[in-house]
Design goal:
Helix content of chain A: 55-70%
Largest interface: A-B, 58 and 57 residues
Order of helices and strands of chain A: HHEHHEEH
CATH topology of chain A: Arc Repressor Mutant, subunit A
Structural class of chain A: mainly alpha
Oligomer: homodimer
CATH architecture of chain A: Orthogonal Bundle
CATH superfamily of chain A: Winged helix-like DNA-binding domain superfamily/Winged helix DNA-binding domain
Strand content of chain A: 5-15%
Strand order of the largest sheet of chain A: 1-3-2
Chain lengths: ~130, ~130
DNA sequence: CAGAATCCGTCTGGATACTG
DNA sequence: CAGTATCCAGACGGATTCTG
């Protein structure tokens, strides 16, 4: 039957979707951020190593993503004054804790991508019947 | 079976950041998606209930977010032909599994928003010293 | 190698007005 | 109540070129 457990249930607290939370969530949930952090979860990497590991990312986006992550205290940037220059990126302790969460998210997506693709096809089929041109 | 064993050494498998995964991740990690799914984790909600619960979301974005989630098989949309109309949104079983992950992400952000804010301030201070106009 | 800088089309998303 | 439709500024992000 209709279980109408009146909305006395845990009401979502408004102060948990404040501007700061929203902003951080926007960056942290970003697709390139997820890939970057997950890849860095395998250990420190150099710039071009990361670029090769993250399929489809442009140099510009990798730079911007890394810069933002560094600013947010999630990755460190270590420059070795050699020739040619070498720059290592690694997760901070804070980044390590984020890794766990993002790895879960990434795994969920990987595991359910097919089901979602099928759901989309089914939805589009239903819509197509409703609106024949 | 077409198992490509090239570059087995790489910890991160390339086919795990394929276009589909990337696409799903882009949507699922979206800030409004996270808030919407987390709020729906508290039970079915009506359109305006959701709108009131998600601070700062516009009607347009709520509509688009819900439509996408419905298409992806993550939420259901139940229309009650009453006057005035009533539409309930709820998580599907697939949505329930996503909820766990997104709740973690949301909680991580809530817990670490302050630390990140401070990291940003520190980073900006360091940068400011380097570039005095 | 690791980027910075620039150009520029695409997409995002808020505001507003209208509807069944 | 629960949307749809339209407008439009600004952010996103790829491609390309240049540098220490």
């Amino acid at each position: 039957m209709l279980q109408r457990h009146t909305e006395v249930t845990t009401e979502f607290r408004r102060d948990e979707c404040n501007p700061i939370t929203r902003d951080v969530l926007t960056r942290v949930g970003d697709k390139w951020t997820v890939f970057t952090v997950v890849v860095l979860g395998g250990g420190p990497k150099r710039f071009n190593e990361l670029k090769r590991s993250i399929d489809g990312i442009s140099q510009r986006m990798l730079t911007l993503t890394l810069r933002t992550l560094e600013r947010d205290g999630i990755v460190t940037r270590s420059v070795f004054p050699t020739v040619p220059p070498r720059v290592d990126y690694a997760l901070t302790p804070l980044g390590m804790t984020l890794l766990r969460t993002l790895k879960d998210l990434h795994d969920w997506v990987s595991s359910n991508a097919d089901e979602i693709t099928q759901a989309r096809a089914a939805f589009d089929r239903r819509s197509a019947v409703q609106q024949p041109l």
